[in-house]
Amino acid sequence: MIDALNDFLAVAVCGSFSQVAKKQGVAVSSVTRKIDWLEAEVGSRLFHRSSRRVVLTDAGEQFIPRARNILTELAEAKEAISSANADPRGLLSVTAPAVFGRRHIMPVIANFLRRYPDVEVELHLSDQVIDLVEQRIDVAVRIGLLPDSDLHAVTLAPLNLITCASPSYLERAGKPEAPGDLLHHDCITTMATPAAWVGTWSYEGLNRGHPFPARGCLRTDDKEGMLQGALAGLGIVQLPSWLVFEDIQAGRLISLFGDVPQSPQRVRPAIHAVRLPGRSHEVKAKLFIAQLQQAVGAPAYWDPLPVAGSSSI
């Protein structure tokens, strides 16, 4: 089967049985027999043959991508079987949100490559949700609510959001004592509210639990930009703990509303590592996710202790 598929694709490319036979160092009849067998198996002629040329039939054109997929799946299956009893090797593709990936995934990848020197990692940093099947991604880190799917998901950490501001802003504008006071403060907000941020700027007992209408002089679609704006004293911001924990620990930001919980939700957004079950790179994917879990810890290293002004949502 494998030889017949390879010969079929080779003949489809060069349009000649004799050229394929010459490259393989075999008789033309050997190649012809394999194509005859393949045509009998699929129940259709794959080539129009004449003394001058060999041309794909409509069925042959349609069969080309299927033949390539079959050979790819077989090769990946062989890799999966061999890698189960050996050190992982080959390509591992990973995707993660841009800022989170730079800050928290790159160090894990560096350690993973040192531990498994025969592995190559392809990292896609994007805030867009990438289709794992279409882009052939092995592991995706996703933040927020996970829709129902066939993906195998591992929770790495809850998504904790912290309302905070710089000491310079609080000295200039005063410290809000309760979430309702935010109406009289500059708040750094997003230009749009992606799915991962549903429920932000919502507080129990305020606005009936609906999203708080925060306003201010700066709106941006970049989380890093929001952080830099807060550090520059432009206003109050609400960002995930994984992004602001170092600045809070260093005193560059001060968390607010430690005793005021955010509005509860039935399903709590979190940070997940997801993979497609049954992929040939499953062994590498599982090892990488396990290393991610170990690196993040429980609780996550960015949430070592309950932080004032934070809430798991």
Q: Which key phrases capture this entry?
A:
3 domains, alpha/beta, Arc Repressor Mutant, subunit A, LysR family transcriptional regulator, six-stranded mixed sheet, DNA-binding, D-Maltodextrin-Binding Protein, domain 2, LysR-type_TF_proteobact-type, 13 strands, LysR_HTH_N
Write a concise synopsis of the structure shown.
The protein is an alpha/beta fold and 313 residues long. Helix content is 38%, strand content 19%.
Number of strands: 13
- Number of separate structural domains: 3
State the CATH superfamily name of the largest domain.
Periplasmic binding protein-like II
Mean pLDDT, to the nearest integer, reads: 84
Poorly predicted spans: 193-199, 305-313
- The CATH architecture category of the largest domain equals 3-Layer(aba) Sandwich
Q: Pairing-aware structural class of the strands and helices?
A: alpha/beta
Net shape: elongated
Q: What does the largest sheet look like?
A: 6 strands, mixed
Query: What is the string of helix and strand elements?
Result: HHHEEHEHEEEEHEEHEHEEHE
InterPro entries: LysR-type_TF_proteobact-type, LysR_HTH_N, LysR_subst-bd, WH-like_DNA-bd_sf, WH_DNA-bd_sf
Keywords: DNA-binding, Transcription, Transcription regulation
Organism: Dyella lipolytica
Protein name: LysR family transcriptional regulator
